[in-house]
């Protein structure tokens, strides 16, 4: 998602309460700053939806996956953050009593667009990897068949995968072919259509 508008400083608890009552517009939070989120493009949403479906269909019954409407919250150096990842999954019960947030995902996926690339690869990356339960952070290009996987067990080093590659997500026990994520947008991302 793209950052559309920065608003004034707000305490974290007030932000969470306001998000429960908000209609239409969602906001992300970083250390007192609240950002209104703009909608994603058709390409972005199709790639995210396809990837979410692959994950959702492979999850064991005790696990859950969410797409873009579930908040992840955490703290990095005593500074609160809250984001709406494009995809998030967990096989643990929610630790808190707020059904609108998660603080214990094992997998987070962001689909990059030109306007979100810097935020997803720097700010969100730096914050997400402080979540103790997170095993993998996956960044997916919306414009070309290209996936980056960052894993806790590899000290968050980048693993790059291209159209003809497959990769494994240990957090959800799934092997995925990169092309499969882009199967509904082959023309837009430069893959040949197969019939």
UniProtKB/TrEMBL annotation:
The keyword Nuclease applies. GO terms for molecular function: endonuclease activity. The keyword Ion transport does not apply. Residues 12-167 form the Putative restriction endonuclease domain. Keywords: Endonuclease, Hydrolase, Nuclease. It holds the Pfam family Uma2. InterPro entries: Nuclease_put_TT1808, Restrct_endonuc-II-like, Uma2. It comes from the Bacteria. This is Endonuclease, Uma2 family (Restriction endonuclease fold). It comes from Thiothrix eikelboomii.
């Amino acid at each position: 998602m793209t950052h559309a508008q920065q608003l004034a400083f707000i305490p974290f608890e007030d932000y969470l309460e306001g998000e429960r009552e908000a209609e239409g517009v969602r906001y992300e939070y970083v250390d007192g700053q609240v950002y209104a989120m703009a909608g994603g493009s058709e390409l972005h949403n199709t790639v995210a939806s396809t990837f979410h479906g692959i994950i959702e269909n492979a999850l064991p019954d005790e696990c859950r996956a969410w797409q873009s409407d579930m908040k992840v919250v955490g703290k990095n150096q005593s500074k609160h953050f809250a984001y709406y990842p494009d995809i998030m999954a967990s096989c643990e019960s929610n630790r808190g009593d707020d059904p609108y947030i998660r603080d214990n995902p094992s997998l987070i996926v962001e689909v990059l667009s030109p306007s979100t690339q810097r935020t997803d690869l720097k700010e969100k990356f730096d914050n997400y990897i402080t979540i103790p339960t997170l095993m993998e952070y996956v960044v997916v290009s919306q414009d070309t068949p290209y996936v980056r996987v960052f894993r806790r067990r590899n000290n968050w080093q980048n693993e790059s995968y291209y159209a003809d590659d497959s990769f494994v997500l240990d957090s959800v026990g799934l092997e995925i072919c990169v092309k499969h994520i882009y199967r509904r947008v082959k023309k837009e991302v430069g893959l040949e259509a197969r019939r």
